[in-house]
Amino acid sequence: MTKFLTTRTTLRTALIAGASLVAMTGAAHAQSAAQTPEQQQARIEALEAQLEALSSQIADLKAATAASLKDVRTVQAAAPAVTIAGGKPAITSADGAFSANFHAVMQLDAGQYYQDKPLPASVTNGRDLNSGTNFRRARLGMDGKLFKNFDYNVLLDFGGAGTDGSGTLQELWLQYNYAPFKVKVGAFAPNVGLEDVASTNGSLFPERPSGSELSRGLAGADKRIGLQVQAVGERYLISGAITGAKAGDPATADEQLGYVGRVAFVPLKGLDWLVHVGANASVVATPAQTADTGLYNITVSDRPELRVDGTQLISSGAIDSTGGRHYGFELAAQKKNFFVQGEYFDIALDRRNPAANVTDPKFKAWYVEGSWILTGEARKYSATNFAFDAPAVDKPFDPKKGQWGAWELAARYSVADLNYHEYSRVAADRVRGGDQQITSVGLNWFPNTATKFSLDYLDVSVDRRNAAGLQAGQDYHVVNLRSQYAF
Description:
Layout: H1 2-31, H2 37-78, E1 81-85, E2 88-92, E3 99-115, E4 132-146, E5 150-157, E6 168-178, E7 181-188, H3 194-197, H4 210-219, E8 224-232, E9 236-246, E10 257-269, E11 273-286, E12 297-298, E13 301-302, E14 314-315, E15 319-335, E16 338-351, E17 362-373, E18 379-382, E19 387-391, E20 406-420, E21 431-448, E22 451-463, E23 475-486
Helix pairs in contact: 1-2
């Protein structure tokens, strides 16, 4: 830039000199009538010499100016680009090889529980569920690219399930991309299923259906440390992972070893519609050794699809096991602004050293959910993880323009049955984990791509017996309002 300014100054000086020369020429012409022919010829030759020198100087200045402009453009082209798209600040190198995207998520729930009063004395768990507020997610992080083919992500979460956290490592991973393959290592949520892999920022309801949580909790789930390989094409996804413990888990004698797999396809697709099918599975090959004496417990449990109160109302309890597994099936369809999806899960544990007449427990869960976007937008289908996300907002909220964002009606019915031989004559064979059924309806409002508000009603029914065979479950209702921004 300094070189360019110097060139401009020199050019200005040359132009002034040229103007002076022109003035001098005019004056010389006025005086020529009084001079002899020899004097006139000498003056003409001197002026021609000066003009030739000036022309050469101007040519040099043009070349220098062009070189300076090229240097300025080169510097500008090499400068990183700073943008804010959809509220997300991003820095990208000029060649696109490096980038850093800063993101944040706030999800604030405010829930009101409506329980029967008084509940039977046998109901000892969740007698008085906490009506109140909870920062479900409060996340700060950065993701981006390294050397074109590497992706990275760093994410911290200060939210919680019923109580706010002090800050935990949510994700920390590095991924290498070599189309159609992706290899990821670090702490992340492995690809376990359709609802599991969908973004929680664009989900239909505040929480995943319980069946999804139960299955992903075996060898997947958030913060899981692992190595994952995926092959992604236009119509297919094939994924497999080796997993261990979760980041932040307490120390054990030996960590868990597990495997996770998923395949998904889009066999039918049109201009404004598609059909999705898939299957997923996970295996706990070696449960974590939680005691020096050789205890290998696996617990299958979940909260009732809301975290304002973090109480778990269904649970298999800790079962000493040699391993466990799940398999699941996925089916979804979309037509313009209508969408429906469902999954079925089968879960089984293998007891370690079972007593006589004690069998290996099996559980099942399933759900179906769907939505209708009143304003006509369609939910986005991700070609990266083969799952559905929040709709695009065609007309962001702006009352002056008569624009009100995107509005969506949603519904879900889910079943999670953690009972196994609950009335068996052999007490050790019983698993009275509970049979949970939840009907949910909701209204989602997306003022723009960065904000969301949702009002949801959940009708929860839990049928669970205690050791004495008395009812330990309950029926209740809850209304929840979620306020969210995410970029």
